[in-house]
Design goal:
With 382 residues, the chain is α/β, with parallel strands linked by helices. Among the domains are: 35-158, no CATH class; 267-322. 57% of the residues lie in helices and 14% in strands. It has helices at 2-31, 153-157, 162-266, 268-320, 322-330, 365-378; strands spanning 39-47, 60-63, 66-78, 85-94, 104-108, 117-122, 144-149. Strand 2 (60-63) and strand 3 form a beta hairpin. Helix 5 packs across helix 6. It starts with a helix and ends with a helix.
């Protein structure tokens, strides 16, 4: 009995010892972060501005949302190339996962809590990389991968990545620069803008006063406008009758035109005959009357010129004979001469009456015509 009990106790003690050793080895592997899978270490670098909020050692590193490694260490270090401080996060991921230098490493911060994780949604392709850290664009162990804060889920699902983030940052930077330049330019032109603004304010005030005046005038014109609209309405009511009258007038005018056309068509031969006669008359006037009239005008002109020449000659003769003609022209007529009767003489013997002189009782016709002319020349009344 004692021997059998001793064997059983020894077997239990050995089993316990072996289990303790195995458990100790497992615990040592766990505590030493030992893994039978081959891993590779990389450095994910965050700028001081972005930081690595909520990230701690042993935080999960995911690729496409699945854990493929964990964070080994976090430190703040100076970048040897730029000389600026950055947050370097050393991660250990499976070596069989190929990462390239243009891969995306996003820091995902939960809405609640502080347990941040690293997610790599894009492994990269290496295309378009001009300068590589090593011999190729593939990320080698120990090389640096640039990290950034993960965008919101809806932007990430839309393909928003570091390039778009940089573009957005450049856009913000350019906008800020443009606003700064605009503010500087505004400060420069402020002295010139202030008078313009004052003028604009005065113009607006004047326009406001004008509008108030117009509104006051409209209040007075409202009655006239209403009357005008009433008249327009009554006129529009009378418009159908006016249109009917116009239609009747147009119909009558159309009938008159048709009647006139009928009359013209009926009398077209006579009208053509009249037009032909008028053409003959006009042709006769052009061919016969106008030459004859021209000839008669020429003859009349010659006669007037001849009469003018004759008058000039007569005037010259009268001027030369004026001394001879004047006494006869101024002598009174024979029947107006005084008769002298001798005094204290006896009766005269009867003598036969002499025939009256030529033109007795009247002046010489030439003297009658020339007498008033000569008296006017001497300034005497006619």
């Amino acid at each position: 009995m004692s021997a059998r009990y001793s064997q059983t106790a020894n077997l239990l003690a050995g089993t316990f010892l072996i289990g303790g050793v195995v458990l100790a080895m497992v615990m040592s592997f766990i505590l030493a972060d030992f893994s039978f899978t081959r891993n590779a270490e990389y450095t994910v670098r965050f700028s001081i501005r972005d930081g690595a909020t909520g990230l701690s050692p042993d935080a999960a590193v995911r690729v496409g949302g699945q854990q493929v490694g964990k964070v080994k260490s976090i430190r703040v270090d100076r970048d040897a190339d730029t000389g600026e401080y950055a947050v370097d996060v050393t991660i250990k991921v499976r070596a069989d996962i190929e990462l390239y230098e243009d891969a995306w490493a996003h820091l995902e911060v939960p809405l609640l809590g502080t347990g941040s994780t690293l997610n790599i949604p894009y492994l990269g392709t290496g295309d378009g990389i001009e300068t590589t850290q090593g011999q190729s664009a593939r990320l080698e162990p120990g090389e640096v991968l640039i990290g950034s804060i993960a965008p919101p889920a809806f932007l990430a699902n839309a393909g928003f990545g570091p390039q778009q983030r940089e573009q957005l940052q450049r856009m913000f930077t350019e906008t800020e620069r443009a606003l700064t330049e605009f503010a500087d330019a505004l400060e420069e032109i402020r002295p010139r803008v202030a008078p313009v603004a004052d003028d604009a304010a005065a113009t607006v005030a004047s326009a406001r006063r004008s509008m108030e005046s117009i509104e006051a005038d409209l209040a007075g014109w409202r009655g006239d406008i209403s009357t005008t609209l009433d008249n327009a309405a009554s006129t529009s009511e009378q418009l159908p009758s006016v249109v009917d009258d116009a239609k009747i007038i147009l119909a009558d005018t159309r009938e008159m035109i048709q009647s006139g056309r009928a009359v013209i068509d009926d009398n077209r031969p006579r009208i053509d005959n009249i037009l032909a006669n008028a053409d003959e008359v006009v042709s006769g006037v052009n061919d016969e009357w106008i030459p004859r009239g021209t000839e008669l005008l020429g003859s009349a002109r010659e006669g007037v010129q001849s009469y003018r020449d004759t008058a000039d000659r007569v005037s010259g003769i009268i001027t030369k004979q004026q001394p001879t003609i004047e006494p006869h022209a101024l002598q009174p007529p024979h029947h107006e001469r005084p008769v002298q009767v001798p005094r204290n003489r006896g009766p005269e013997p009867a003598v036969a009456a002499a025939p009256p002189p030529r033109h007795q009782g009247a002046r010489n016709p030439a003297a009658l015509r020339l007498g008033p002319l000569l008296r006017r020349r001497r300034g005497r009344p006619a």
